Predict the structure.
Amino acid sequence: MNKHNVLLTGLALTLSTSAWADFTASPEEARGIAKEAYLYGFPVVEMYKTLYAQAVDTKGPNFKAPFNQIGNTAKAFTAKDTAIITPNADTPYSFVWMDLRAEPLVLTLPPIEEHRYYSVQLIDLYTQNFAYLGTRSTGNNGGHFMIAGPNWQGQQPLNIDRLLRSETNIAYALYRTQLFDGKDLAKVNQIQKGYKVETLSHYDKHKAPPAAPKIAWPKPVPGMTDNPDLFRYLNFMLSFAPTQDVEKDLLGRFAKIGIEAGKPFNVSTLTADQRKALEDGIADGKAEFAEFKKTKVDTHEVTSGEFFGTRDHLKGNYLYRYAGANMGIFGNSAEEANYIGYFVDKDGQPVDASKHDYTLHFDKGALPPADAFWSLTMYDGKNKLLYANPLNRYLINSRMLPDLKLDSDGGLTLYVQNKAPAKALQSNWLPAPNGPFYGVLRLYLPKPEVTNGQWQMPLLTPVNQQNQ
């Protein structure tokens, strides 16, 4: 049975022959391999959940468009949007899930005004950002850009501005178009209508190649990224990702516990010892991340810019790739945006608005340095989504500065709390849930003083303590 036939039969089928014929690892060895495979595979499977919601589940609330078509959201994300954790609400999104097996796609971008930021983030199935289009990378003049899969051998048309290669046959184009304010939605919608996606054969008016085999997409199940079910979906996704030379040895180890591109992986065929070994390995991976987050991320010793980028940028650090997918999947590469996570206060304590009110103070002349814009967004710590609040205010950003109240010395203080502050301060209030939360400060097109450490981020300061 070849790879495509495996896909066509549907991954969820229980085959008569054991899916564990190749399980050769001892329980001790399997535990170590499972830890590696969990950290490696979590981003891939987490990405699959978004793929299925946006491009496969046509009747679901988060469906955007079929493969190789663009879906536009002519509004900013709200608390009702649940397909992507830690989303931003500054840049209405457009989405293209790209099936590059048969032929490349051509993305056409319209010219837009110079002062508006926009980008197209190109992401492979490993969640690696393999290229960008837009303000920073290609400018605001628009153009025609071809995205090709790993096996395409054709010739680039002369009127294509740039050819970009994905190392996986399924990839994601995530568009962000800056929204200035509520009155600007119509303009953003007009820009989005200018985004065009077509196959290469349609673009250059040639006969289309034979269609790629139809795919039987396995339906996501609850908890699929928390238990050995993850490896079933990982095998499926790896079918679209030719093995890279640098990972041959790693995937060879994974094969010892049944992880192999396109092969069935049926948890029910595990022995009790095998299942426990895999579960323990997954628990080990989670524990390593929890310690890493506490000691390196929350203390800002390691920044988000290290979690997102190309394969070369990540240098095989699968813990970093996991961290990015766990805390804010599809984050931008460092040169495109800088992310500062507020998970703890200035004393290193987890932030919780049921226990404290908080302030975030910027000295005069020390606002976040960004060539495009900056934004502080609030998230519910329990579900990692935007926090529903009476003001429908999910963020405070640099476009709002004329409406914010400055301190007497010219600085800026933001009030991060569950209940409204005094009326005179409410313009600067970022509502927080009555419990754990986190904030993300995004700087789009960050200036050099961010990366070289010249600009120092302020810390959340607890103002009062309740329920003692």
About this structure: Confidence is low (pLDDT under 50) at residues 1-21. The CA atoms of residues 79 and 282 lie 30 Å apart. Residues 27-56 form the longest helix (30 residues). Residues 56-203 form a domain with the Immunoglobulin-like fold (CATH 2.60.40.1610).
